[in-house]
Write a structure and sequence with these properties.
Elements lengths: L6 E9 L2 E10 L2 E9 L3 E2 L2 H10 L6 H12 L3 E2 L3 H17 L1
Antiparallel strand pairs: 1-2, 2-3, 4-5
Helix pairs in contact: 1-2, 2-3
Length: 99
């Protein structure tokens, strides 16, 4: 049986719209599982779950991630911008490189 490396990474990003906390399982540079929490406002709040579901299985490619999040947030009200989420996820990449 062959085991693949799975890394649990976390990132905190403070924007003017609030704090974003990200925890993600990363395997072979792909997001297996991601959880987004924080002290920000978003309506409808189901958008966070939509973002999480849309990012699962995606490469850690910030351009793709930006496009995905932007599409989900276009009809939402939030104290955060797409770029705030992208910066929080970029923190995962920085943590991964630091290992």
């Amino acid at each position: 049986m062959e085991f693949q490396e799975v890394k649990m990474l976390s990132s905190n990003y403070k924007s003017s719209g609030g704090l974003i906390r990200i925890r993600a399982d990363i395997q072979e540079n792909k997001i297996n599982d991601i959880m987004i929490t924080g002290d920000f406002f978003i309506f409808p709040d189901s958008r966070i779950e939509e973002i999480e579901n849309a990012l699962e299985g995606k490469e850690l490619n910030l351009d793709e991630i930006r496009n995905t999040i932007d599409e989900i947030l276009k009809d939402s009200q939030s104290t955060l911008e797409t770029e705030d989420f992208v910066n929080a996820i970029a923190g995962l990449q920085q943590e991964k490189l630091a290992e």
